Amino acid sequence: MSNDVLILAEHLKGKVSDISFEMTGKGRQLAVAFGGKAVAVMLGSGAAALAATLGADSVLYVDDPALAEFNPQAYGRVLAALINDRAPRLVMVGNTSMGMDLAAGLSVTAGLPLMAYVNGLAAEGGALAATSQIYGGKIQAEAVPDGEACVVSCLAGAFPADAGRVGAGLVPALEQIASPVPLADLQIKFVRMIEPQSGDVDITQQPILVSIGRGIGGQENIELAQELAEALGTAVSASRPVTDAGWLPKTRQVGKSGLTVKPKIYLAFGISGAPEHLEGMRGAETIIAVNTDPKAPIFDVAHYGATCDMLDLLPALTEKIKA
Amino acid sequence: MNIVVPIKQIPNLTDELEINGDGTGLDHDALQYVLNEFDEHAIEEAVLAKEAAGGTVTVIGVDTTGELDGALHTALAKGADKAARITGDFPRGTDSHTQAKLLANAIRSLSPDLVLTGVQAADDRDGQIGPMIAAHLGLPYVGVVTGVAVKDGKAIVHKEYAGGLMGEFEVSLPMVVGVQAAHQPPRYAPVSKVRQIAKTAKIDEIAGDEAAGAGSTVRRMFKPEAAGHAEMWEGGPEEVAEKIAALIKEKGLLKG
Ligand SMILES: Cc1cc2nc3c(=O)[nH]c(=O)nc-3n(C[C@H](O)[C@H](O)[C@H](O)COP(=O)(O)OP(=O)(O)OC[C@H]3O[C@@H](n4cnc5c(N)ncnc54)[C@H](O)[C@@H]3O)c2cc1C
Ligand SMILES: Nc1ncnc2c1ncn2[C@@H]1O[C@H](COP(=O)(O)O)[C@@H](O)[C@H]1O
């Protein structure tokens, strides 16, 4: 085993995802503590220029036409081969749409423990401790791998991104290789990208948002939120269960697989504050949360909060705004 | 077509969660269990796939709560054809790696064309079982999926990225999918129908083998010490509405 940290960098549509920089910065810090190097790995086709933006000790860029778009099977194979070859101390993968397809499978194929949903990593005297955020953000679990090597999947936004960008003092050595494993016989074939539908309103452009979660109770109550939004001259946005149920269009979804919004005021009504929701709204200037559960994690990020019933609050607030 | 859906119950997250005496796990006795919401979607997508392409749907679970039968019966009431339970001494909070191994062994014997798991369950820290089952079985896996269409031994799956962007993949079966959302909201099973099924349904028992272990150990479990907490406004809806309206006004965000 080496003392290196291997970081999987992600890119989508020609852009390196922030999680890649977040993990690279943290990975470099850990590599110092382990006495190894931080090696960022990027897979792609003709994307070496993207790889060169990663502020790791070195960047390994794997170039193959089969890696032009994310493909869980192709990525999984290449990473398994690299892990086998280089025996890193730590493998860092994002707990993202891409990383969620890879980390657990690698843990099995490479025979390494996995700590997932990680939002804290520390090297204590050279030993790793990882803190995972579980139970919808209500509980933290701090764990240590039983052996020395392991895989972690990191939550977006857990570490500062700027620490992982190429900067003045650091010009990483870029090594380009062909895929170390054959990728011609994949069972998974990328077909196409499907662009998001454009909506009636753009929730990322509103100075104030009325955002509702499962606490709205049912489709028949949506109009209570709509009336408030109308009075405020804005739109209703929502958490995932509301759009999955078809009560509001997908274009209104805030969060990990929805949109990221930064309004001046974000009204979060009946939203528990799961990590996947927070990913999309924690940058709002002022967050006001209303939730009947005083222990709801949303109150940890909100600036103001109340525990009254949103179904009573909505009409009361609409009236006050209209007055 | 043989469709298998592994399902799992997790603590109801709107309940108060208490940490156990030695501070390394939850106090499971105090908890109510509900079916993982993504499994509701996996069941729906499985039944839709069966309705479109024919076949059977088998729901299966490692019973860590002693209450799994209720969830299996509900799935049968929604259109699953068979149910199976993996038996053995697997307490609440059993790690994912152990459960994945148990499930993979059981699922192998069912020769599936399609395994639909939930994309994740918010109750454990050692990773999602879907990709682990796929790795054990040597099958391809695509997760964060919002729609599966099967045709001629292939599945077309839609995988969600951020902002509503989706990737479309064509995968030769058999495969494992991590379902994020079915392409229509999960159907509802009337309680009377679930009760009826509970009286007559047969649940196959599959004996579980050894525990694999997570490969990591929890030192400490705790409630997040938030950097900040909201300033809480007391009072009923009228008072709270008053405060919110004042703040909106103060920020100059009132129209008209
Ligand atoms: C890969 C992945 C991507 C995801 N992407 C997203 C995403 O983009 N956006 C997103 O939001 N989620 C996303 N999720 C889902 C996320 O994990 C949560 O399931 C979801 O955010 C929960 O939504 P919620 O808070 O509305 O519902 P719940 O967690 O069920 O919370 C409802 C809340 O309403 C409160 N409540 C109930 N009744 C009332 C009342 N009358 N008045 C006031 N409060 C009340 C309850 O106390 C509870 O806190 C994703 C999950 C995965 C796995
Ligand atoms: N004990 C279990 N029995 C059956 N299926 C499970 C079990 N644990 C996890 N799963 C499946 O794996 C998915 C992801 O859960 P998890 O691995 O806990 O994140 C769930 O949605 C289920 O489909």
CATH class of the largest domain in chain A: Alpha Beta
Q: In which range does the helix fraction of chain A lie?
A: 25-40%
- Structural category of chain A: alpha/beta
Radius of gyration of chain B: 21 Å
- Which sequence of SSEs, written as H and E, runs from N to C of chain B? EEEHEHEHEHEEEEHEEEH
Please give the largest β-sheet of chain A: 9 strands, mixed
Q: How much is the average pLDDT of chain A?
A: 95
Oligomeric status: heterodimer
Strand order of the largest sheet of chain A: 9-8-7-10-6-1-4-5-11
Number of structural units classed as domains of chain B:
1
CATH topology grouping of chain B: Rossmann fold
Number of alpha- plus pi-helical segments of chain B: 6
Describe the structure.
Chain A is α/β, with parallel strands linked by helices. Chain A is built from nine helices and 17 strands. Chain A has a nine-stranded mixed sheet. In chain A, strands 14-13-15-16-17 form a five-stranded parallel sheet. In chain A, strand 15, helix 7 (275-278) and strand 16 (286-290) form a beta-alpha-beta unit. In chain A, helix 5 (222-232) runs parallel beside helix 9. The longest helix of chain A has 17 residues, at 18-34. Chain A starts with a strand and ends with a helix. The relative contact order of chain A is 0.12. Chain B is α/β, with parallel strands linked by helices. Chain B has helices at residues 37-53, 68-77, 96-108, 129-137, 191-200, 237-250, and strands spanning 2-6, 9-11, 33-35, 56-62, 82-87, 114-118, 141-151, 154-160, 166-172, 175-179, 203-207, 216-222, 231-232. In chain B, the strands form two sheets. Chain B has a nine-stranded mixed sheet with strand order 9-8-7-10-6-1-4-5-11, with helices on both faces. In chain B, strands 2-3 form a two-stranded antiparallel ribbon. In chain B, helix 2 packs across helix 5 (191-200) and helix 3 packs across helix 4 (129-137). The N and C termini of chain B lie far apart (60 Å). At the A-B interface, helix 4, strand 7, strand 8, strand 9 and strand 12 of A face helix 3, helix 4, strand 7, strand 8 and strand 9 of B. Strand 12 of chain A pairs antiparallel with strand 9 of chain B. The complex binds flavin-adenine dinucleotide and adenosine monophosphate. Adenosine monophosphate is lined by residues 6-8, 36, 38-39, 42, 61-62, 64, 96, 99, 103, 117-118, 120-121, 124, 128-130 of chain B.
